[in-house]
């Protein structure tokens, strides 16, 4: 009886298993068809030949053919995986990730908004909440209630823009003006809310100043007011020093020196050590080593009385600063007018981080 | 206020370091805007003596001098000055020196003769205008002495920022008082160089009229002029002031006029009391009266300008005419001139608000008005006058005819204030011993009587401190003299406020976050504009006509910013602004204000990328999406409706809350269409989102394509879909619109993607078929709209 399966076929096929690992992609496809092809694959044919064999042969030969088939399948799978990996590696090598990414338009808050938000954030932690108020006010709210003496040179520092409207009647009335500071909101707050009061007041203030590199007729102010039983100058110094360390740097040195505001007494200016020269004196700090950051003081008793607050029992402090000026310092903006324009080139440069998409040409 | 460091040092009888003095003044409330060393650029200049002056062999006008500059070797100097003489002493710039103008002196030949340095005129050294010849030095200093050492030229100008409550610091005496307190040193009025030391009998006190030196004096306006002290000096010689007066005045920024006028100015800068000198010979009467002006009265003032007066102004007049505007400026008619021999010296006190009003009306801000407005010491006139007489006599000679006359219609005293040390502790947060408080108050010139029994001090404040009127003013003085640095910086317990954050602020922040996330940059433009409507609120005193009104809307400002960007060749512009707009006032009230947000977009929809080098430009649909998003943040209770190619936001009550659309602008050809929106920001708190269960059953999708008439809003078709689709129709999404000439005229093809779902079961195909056909029937019945594939053109 002749062997229905030529053993040299099996042998030569077995030898081909080990060569699979050396085939390239197209040779691999050809070899898969040559071995496992449904019609004329060499193994397929061997398997078909099994059908005409005796049971004993079937068992014997079938076992070896099936084992060979598994070997081939494993070898093909391994080779395919290896070729896949090679291809992926090639693709990875070919991917140039230095090509620019696809970006979206990115926007940004205004630099002054960012300064205001940061200041507000610090005072919020200290128990302050945000109050706002109207920008057109009467003389009483802007001056009278704040203890500005009528006809006094203190008014010269508040070059006022008046509106072309008839005066508002009543004891809280007077000519209608654009508020020269956000302090009228202190008055409105005290009239509304009994102590304890702790508010920060961001908003626009207006002055009859020509629009030049360092002045603007409307600018952002942020004020704060704390009124309670037992608030003293110590609290003022501590609160504002803490603010300076949070806002500038943990090692920021500050100094308080006497000043004058009609609505506070004692009044002070808070200076911080010049960030540029570290206090040695330079052009930015006019050689003094200090940069003026905010005005502050203990709320004048007459202001409290004007708002119906018992000035013997309650004391308080108030402060105010100019985020436009702080933004100029912080972002190195040379001309305040840039902060009033929508020049995309400027806004892009002042945006935090790296603005995707950019703005300018 | 410009202060002379030398002057202050004279008061304190000790040298002062400019930086240290400035720091101490700053810590007392008078910071220096600048510290300016004067004449430091003369450091190279020496005193030299000309030994011989021979004619130049080759030039008629030049001379060759042998100059002793102290080096032990005579220098040859070629000099063209007419006044150079052998034996004369002049400033000398040796080879290597630099003149104030920056000129560096080198050895060189002038017309063949060697010149080793330069003899200088006053002008060449920046010391005045005299260029007639060399500066003839009146000094005994040896040749070779530095000019700055030989002459007291070196001084430092402190440019001080004096707050309006501190008139006393507008004079050197007031500043010296502060420095004396800071250094713990005494201070005294300096000795005037060359003074014989004038004594003056006590002034004669009268109520409102009297005479001095033959001049009748009167106060007819006691409100405008509460006090008037005067003296007459006869026989003065008017001429130039001595150098030391000229230099002091130059340091504080005043030009020298003549010795008499300079003396009055000197006293003003020393004691903060403006003075005036009249030529007695030119006084009609002779009389000097403080009275109200008559409406329309005229006077020619010292600056040569004729000024028209009104009845609200206090003036100084002689028997016939106005000779000065009280507290502001003197008149030309009685001005002291070289011919003057007899002086009438005025040391008056004028009402601060009257002076303020007058100088405001006249537009004339002078050193005098600046001081009177802030308040001078009305109890010290006699002492000031004595000082002025002493100085006049020192520099111009003359005899005091008799003691001064002091007119004082309403005698007053500086106020007495009661101070509770317990209150000091309460305001400052630190307990100070009584003796320390007393010490500080004495240092500012107050008289203190301690009354420990009732827990207070009686404090008589000095006349030069009109700012001290209440207890809190004294507490500030105590804090100031104690030193703000000495008050502890310790965080103590505090209570938070009860108030919540203002909802408008929160709403604005919400809108801002959203628009930034949409890729827009925030801007903050000026709220003043040209009138943008009849009812724009006008500013009474605007900076310019183009900024004469308050904005009613934000968009015009943003449109200008788009144009600005185009002018800078920027094509992609995405901006927004949040700000107040001003609407007409209710009668008798201030304008109504509203918080608005506006945005503009133009240019590419996305940044250009190498995969898409020319992205499509933004269009109306980008704007509509932005508007919809902004509405959700700014004014969620409003809804959007189309109106004539634009979008309107409306509140339920029908009020407009904003709009959006294409903007007309001055655009270059290469720009893309500009779109913008504006919305009112509603400060009402937004309703919090509520969770709705995520469906667990599968949805069934169908697409239907309908032929929709061009004028029929697709929103109505979608509404009809919902009406017909019933409860099973979950969502309708428009996925495509097709317009073509292939379609019947006036119709467009719109594809609706329908999502059907039942919350409790998986829908069968039959359920969906039924719902879809009801939907189609509904749109057909309600709107006459058919499926595109169902022969819509065939009329039924």
Explain what the structure shows.
The complex is a heterodimer of chains A (361) and B (796). In chain A, 39% of the residues lie in helices and 18% in strands. Chain A is rod-shaped and about 125 Å long. In chain A, a hairpin with a 2-residue loop joins strand 6 and strand 7. Chain A is α+β, with helices and mostly antiparallel strands and 361 residues long. Chain A has eleven helices and nine strands. Chain A has helices spanning 7-19, 25-36, 42-50, 55-94, 111-125, 139-142, 184-192, 233-247, 301-306, 323-331, 344-350; strands at 129-130, 136-138, 176-178, 197-206, 218-229, 254-261, 264-273, 290-299, 314-321. Chain B is 25% helix and 27% strand. Chain B is built from 17 helices and 40 strands. Chain B has a seven-stranded mixed beta sheet, with helices on both faces. In chain B, strands 11, 14, 15, 22, 23 and 24 form a six-stranded mixed beta sheet that branches. The longest helix of chain B is centred in the last third of the chain and has 19 residues, at 765-783. Chain B is elongated, with a radius of gyration of 42 Å. Chains A and B meet through helix 5, strand 1, strand 2, strand 4 and strand 5 of A and helix 2, strand 2, helix 7, helix 10 and helix 12 of B.
Strand order of the largest sheet of chain A: 1-4-5-9-8-7-6
Mean pLDDT over all positions of chain B: 92
Structural class of chain B: alpha+beta
Q: What portion of residues of chain B belong to β-strands?
A: 25-35%
Give the overall pLDDT of chain A as a whole number. 89
Strand order of the largest sheet of chain B: 28-31-32-36-35-34-33
Question: What ranges of chain B have pLDDT less than 50 throughout 5 or more consecutive residues?
Answer: 791-796
What is the C-alpha radius of gyration of chain A, as a whole number of Å? Answer: 41 Å
Poorly predicted ranges of chain A (pLDDT <50, ≥5 residues)? 355-361
């Amino acid at each position: 009886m002749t062997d229905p399966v030529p053993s040299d076929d099996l042998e030569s096929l077995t030898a081909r298993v080990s060569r699979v690992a050396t085939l390239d992609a197209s040779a691999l496809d050809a070899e898969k068809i040559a071995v496992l092809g449904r019609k004329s694959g060499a193994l397929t044919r061997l398997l078909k030949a099994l059908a005409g064999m005796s049971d004993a042969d079937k068992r014997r030969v079938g076992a070896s053919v099936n084992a060979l088939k598994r070997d081939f399948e494993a070898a093909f799978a391994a080779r395919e995986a290896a070729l896949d990996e090679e291809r992926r590696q090639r693709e990875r090598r070919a991917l140039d990730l230095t090509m620019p990414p696809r970006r979206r338009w990115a926007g940004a808050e205004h630099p002054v908004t960012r300064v205001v938000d940061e200041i507000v954030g610090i005072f919020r932690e200290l128990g302050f909440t945000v109050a706002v108020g109207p920008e057109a006010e009467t003389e009483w709210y802007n001056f009278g209630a704040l203890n500005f003496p009528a006809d006094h040179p203190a008014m010269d520092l508040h070059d006022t823009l008046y509106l072309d409207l008839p005066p508002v009647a009543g004891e809280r009335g007077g000519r209608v003006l654009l508020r020269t500071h956000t302090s009228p909101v202190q008055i409105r707050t005290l009239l509304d809310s009994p102590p304890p009061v702790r508010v920060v007041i961001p908003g626009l203030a207006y002055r009859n100043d020509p629009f030049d590199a360092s002045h603007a007729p409307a600018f952002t102010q942020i004020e704060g007011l704390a009124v309670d039983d037992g608030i003293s100058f110590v609290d003022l110094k501590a609160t504002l020093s803490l603010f300076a360390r949070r806002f500038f740097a943990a090692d920021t040195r500050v100094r308080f020196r006497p000043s004058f505001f009609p609505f506070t007494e004692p009044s002070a200016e808070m200076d911080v050590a010049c960030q540029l020269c570290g206090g040695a004196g330079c052009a930015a700090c006019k050689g003094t080593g200090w940069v003026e950051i905010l005005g502050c003081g203990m709320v004048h008793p007459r202001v409290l009385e004007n708002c119906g607050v018992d000035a013997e029992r309650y004391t308080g402090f108030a402060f105010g600063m100019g985020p436009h000026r702080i933004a100029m310092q912080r972002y190195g903006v040379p001309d305040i007018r840039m902060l009033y324009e929508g020049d995309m080139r400027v806004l892009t440069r002042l945006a935090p981080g790296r603005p995707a998409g950019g703005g300018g040409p | 206020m410009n202060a002379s460091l030398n002057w202050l040092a004279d008061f304190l009888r000790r040298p002062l370091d400019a930086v240290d003095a400035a720091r101490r003044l700053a810590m007392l409330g008078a910071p220096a805007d600048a510290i300016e060393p004067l004449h430091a650029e003369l450091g190279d200049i020496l005193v030299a003596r000309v030994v011989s002056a021979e004619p130049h062999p080759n030039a008629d006008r030049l001379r060759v001098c042998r100059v002793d500059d102290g080096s032990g070797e005579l220098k040859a100097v070629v000099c063209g000055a007419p006044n150079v003489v052998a034996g004369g002493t002049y400033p000398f710039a040796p080879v290597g020196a630099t003149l104030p103008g920056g000129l560096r002196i080198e050895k060189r030949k002038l017309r063949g003769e060697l010149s080793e340095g330069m003899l200088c005129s006053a002008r060449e050294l920046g010391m005045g205008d005299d260029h007639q010849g060399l500066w003839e030095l009146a000094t005994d200093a040896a040749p070779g002495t530095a000019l700055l050492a030989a002459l007291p030229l070196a001084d430092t100008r402190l440019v001080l920022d004096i707050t309006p409550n501190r008139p006393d610091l507008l004079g050197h005496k007031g500043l010296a008082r502060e420095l004396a307190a800071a250094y713990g040193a005494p201070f005294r009025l300096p000795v005037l160089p060359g003074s014989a030391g004038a004594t003056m009998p006590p002034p004669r006190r009268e109520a409102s009229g009297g005479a001095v030196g033959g001049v009748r004096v009167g106060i007819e306006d006691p409100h405008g002029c509460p006090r008037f002290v005067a003296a007459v000096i006869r026989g003065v010689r008017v001429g130039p002031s001595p150098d030391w007066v000229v230099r002091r005045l130059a340091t504080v920024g005043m030009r020298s006029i003549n010795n008499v006028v300079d003396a009055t100015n000197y006293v003003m800068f020393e004691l903060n009391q403006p003075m005036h000198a009249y030529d007695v010979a030119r006084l009609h009467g002779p009389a000097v009266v403080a009275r109200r002006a008559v409406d329309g009265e005229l006077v020619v003032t010292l600056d040569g300008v004729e000024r028209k007066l009104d009845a609200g102004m206090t003036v100084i007049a002689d028997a016939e005419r106005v000779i000065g505007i009280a507290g502001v400026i003197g008149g030309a008619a009685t001005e002291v001139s070289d011919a003057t021999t007899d002086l009438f010296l005025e040391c008056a006190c004028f009402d601060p608000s009257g002076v303020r009003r007058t100088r405001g009306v006249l537009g004339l801000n002078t050193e005098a008005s600046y001081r009177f407005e802030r308040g001078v010491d009305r109890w010290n006139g006699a002492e000031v006058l004595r000082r002025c007489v002493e100085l006049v006599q020192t520099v111009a000679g003359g005899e005091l005819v008799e003691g001064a006359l002091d007119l004082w219609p309403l005698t007053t005293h500086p106020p007495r204030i009661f101070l509770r040390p317990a209150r000091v502790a309460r305001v400052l947060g630190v307990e100070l011993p009584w003796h320390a408080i007393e010490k500080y108050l004495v240092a500012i010139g107050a008289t203190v009587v301690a009354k420990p029994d009732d827990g207070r001090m009686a404090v008589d404040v000095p006349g030069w401190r009109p700012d001290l009127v209440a207890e809190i003013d004294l507490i500030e003085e105590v804090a100031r003299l104690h030193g703000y640095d000495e008050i502890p910086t310790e965080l103590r317990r505090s209570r938070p406020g009860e108030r919540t954050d203002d909802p408008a602020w929160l709403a604005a922040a919400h809108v801002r976050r959203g628009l930034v996330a949409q890729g827009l940059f925030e801007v903050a433009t000026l709220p003043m504009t040209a009138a943008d409507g009849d009812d724009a609120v006008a500013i009474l005193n605007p900076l310019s006509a183009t900024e004469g009104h308050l904005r009613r809307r934000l968009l015009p400002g943003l449109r200008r910013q788009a144009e600005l960007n185009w002018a800078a060749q920027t094509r992609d512009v995405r901006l927004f602004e949040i700000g107040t707009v001003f609407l007409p006032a209710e009668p008798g009230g201030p304008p109504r204000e509203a918080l608005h947000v506006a945005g503009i977009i133009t240019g590419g929809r996305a940044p250009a990328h190498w995969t898409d080098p020319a992205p499509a430009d933004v269009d109306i649909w980008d704007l509509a999406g932005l508007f919809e998003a902004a509405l959700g943040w700014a004014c969620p209770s409003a809804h959007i409706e189309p109106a004539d190619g634009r979008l309107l936001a409306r509140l339920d009550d029908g009020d407009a809350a904003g709009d959006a659309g294409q903007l007309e602008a001055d655009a270059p050809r290469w720009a893309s269409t500009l779109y913008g929106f504006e919305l009112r920001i509603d400060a009402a708190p937004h309703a919090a989102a509520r969770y709705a269960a995520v469906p667990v059953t599968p949805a069934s999708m169908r697409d239907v394509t309908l032929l929709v008439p061009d004028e029929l809003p697709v929103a109505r078709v979608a509404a009809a879909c919902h009406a017909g689709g019933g409860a099973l129709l979950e969502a309708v999404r428009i996925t495509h619109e097709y317009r073509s000439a292939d379609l019947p005229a006036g119709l467009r093809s719109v594809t609706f993607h329908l999502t059907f779902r039942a919350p409790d079961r998986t829908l069968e195909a039959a359920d969906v078929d039924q719902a879809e056909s009801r939907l189609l029937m509904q749109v057909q019945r309600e709107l006459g709209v058919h499926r595109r594939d169902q022969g819509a053109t065939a009329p039924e």
